[in-house]
Design goal:
The chain is of the alpha/beta class. Helices cover about 35% and strands about 20% of the residues.
Length: about 350
């Protein structure tokens, strides 16, 4: 049974949900220790191509898959034969399998690989080494590794960390710094940043500038600012929104900021598989308000064709403020990697 992301994870105040945090602390210490040992003991394999890792330090909600998708687009536009590689979370296939959006469903390969495969060749593989070898055989000279920061199996050319830039009110992307399940962190902040080459701060669409206090956390690392940009306006008329992502409240905010006449919003757990019962509930909610149903592209790909007939997808993509600079950063890292490998 999947549970919704606790909102208190992303509150910096340690007094918020103090008892729950305290009880879960020992589990967080174990999680952090296991992660650190796995990374320290693994000897990464060089897959004979550049590896651009796009990951995060929290359990989700930062925008890493849109950044991976944009990195693929920019690299391919620069003439690099870049292909995506994902674990395929939520899918039944172990891989290596090249994702075919016309053939595969989210139940086969997971929702995020289906999104990535709209723009570039993408592989899913539980075994990242086997997936990398399949992609290289297919002609890849660079891999964009989705959600790879805590996976040490492959030698990385660039390690990007994607961070949620929302800091208004009482929100903070790292909460009080506690490791899962006491907080949102996959590992301690200092340990994760020590392996990073650059940080992508994903700003809300209605926030003009990044919080200087947040930027100061990444002292010494290159920082690139990006936003999730809608590919079109939200549907007109009254709407009931829903989303099964790590931070569903961000979708609600974004829809309202884009001018959607949102009369209700229903959160679901991340990667939720929508049952007929779920859809019946959503259609009933929409009927109460005589409204339509709207959701994210990530949720849309998990719906069946019959379910999609009642729902409008609202796709968004990551766009960088300094697109040219970000692309040049990646290309230069890949070029340096090739020179080093040729020696």
């Amino acid at each position: 049974m999947k549970l919704n992301t606790p909102r208190w994870w992303y509150v910096r105040d340690r007094d918020h949900a103090r008892m729950t945090r305290t009880l879960l602390k020992p589990l967080g210490w174990i999680w952090a220790g296991v992660t650190a040992q796995r990374i320290a003991r693994t000897v990464p394999l060089d897959p004979s191509c550049a590896v651009i890792s796009v990951g995060n330090l929290t359990v989700g909600g930062s925008g890493k898959t849109p950044v991976a998708r944009e990195a693929l687009r920019l690299l391919r536009a620069a003439g690099v034969e870049a292909q995506g590689l994902s674990r395929g979370y939520g899918g039944r296939l172990e891989g290596p399998v090249r994702v075919d959006p016309a053939l595969h469903t989210a139940k086969d390969v997971g929702d995020e690989p289906l999104m990535l495969a709209q723009d570039a060749p993408v592989w899913i593989s539980r075994d990242r080494v086997a997936g990398a070898e399949a992609a290289v055989t297919d002609g890849a000279d660079a891999l964009v590794l989705d959600d790879g920061h805590q996976n040490p199996a492959l030698k990385k050319t660039v390690s990007l960390i994607v961070v949620d830039g929302e800091t208004r009110g009482d929100e903070w992307p790292f909460g009080d710094g506690s490791v899962f399940p006491s907080g949102p962190m996959r590992e301690p902040l200092k340990a994760g940043l020590a392996r990073a080459d650059a940080v992508v701060v994903m700003l809300p669409t209605d926030l003009e500038t990044a919080d200087p206090e947040l930027l100061a956390v990444f002292d010494g690392l290159p920082i690139y600012l990006a936003r999730l940009t809608p590919q079109g306006p939200p549907p007109t008329g009254l709407q009931v929104g829903f989303a099964g992502i790590a931070k569903p409240w961000k979708v609600e905010r974004s829809l309202k900021a884009a001018g959607c006449d949102l009369v209700d919003f229903v959160p679901f757990p991340d990667h939720a598989a929508y049952s007929d019962k779920d859809m019946a509930f959503l259609k009933d909610r929409a009927a109460v308000f005589q409204a339509g149903l709207v959701t994210t592209e990530k949720d849309w790909v998990r719906l069946t064709p019959d379910q999609r007939a009642h729902v409008t997808a609202w796709p968004v993509v990551a766009r960088f403020e300094d697109e040219a600079g970000f692309a040049a950063f990646l290309v230069e890292k890949i070029r340096a990697d090739r020179i080093q490998s040729a020696r």
